[in-house]
Specification:
The protein has one domain: Rossmann fold. It is about 40% helix and about 20% strand. It is built from 5 helices and 5 strands; from the N terminus they run βαβαβαβαβα. Strands 2-1-3-4-5 form a 5-stranded parallel beta sheet, sandwiched between helices. Strand 4, helix 4 and strand 5 form a beta-alpha-beta unit. It is globular, with a radius of gyration of 15 Å. The two termini are about 25 Å apart.
Length: about 130
């Protein structure tokens, strides 16, 4: 069975943050194609394609309201495994994550181990299981 490439969107206006995700993808045991978005419009456009498997989205990005990009993520790509990024854990952030049914939340700064853990969690949850019920 061929291993499918994971399409991972990293939407953050911080180049070093996006680079950390690219480095994590390079360490992964499965092939990961990183798609970068440096603002909310690019994030929305990538999600509109409907081909993103795993998305890391900063809730504070230019060119789109802080809440609009994550809502777009959920509306445009309901099956995408969404992780929200933020520099502070506020009640608003926690409420947004709950409403969006985000699978994960990461607070900045975070280490490379946290990225690796989320990628592994996505891998476990996205495996198709075939079963025969008698």
């Amino acid at each position: 069975m061929a291993i499918r490439t994971i399409r991972m969107l990293v939407a953050d206006d911080s180049r070093p943050c996006r680079l950390a995700f690219c480095e994590a993808a390079g360490r992964a045991t499965v092939p990961i194609r990183v798609i970068e978005a440096c603002d909310g419009r690019e994030c929305r456009d990538q999600l509109n394609h409907g081909t993103i498997d795993l998305a890391f989205i900063d809730v504070h990005m230019p060119h789109i309201s802080a809440l609009e990009a994550p809502w777009e993520a959920r509306n445009q790509a309901p099956r995408t495994f969404v992780t929200l990024l933020s520099s502070s854990k506020t009640a608003q952030f926690s409420e947004l994550a709950r409403k969006l049914r985000a699978q994960e939340c990461l607070l900045k700064p975070f280490g490379e181990r946290k990225i690796d853990e989320i990628v592994k969690k996505y891998q476990c949850l996205s495996v198709s299981i075939r079963a025969l019920a008698i």
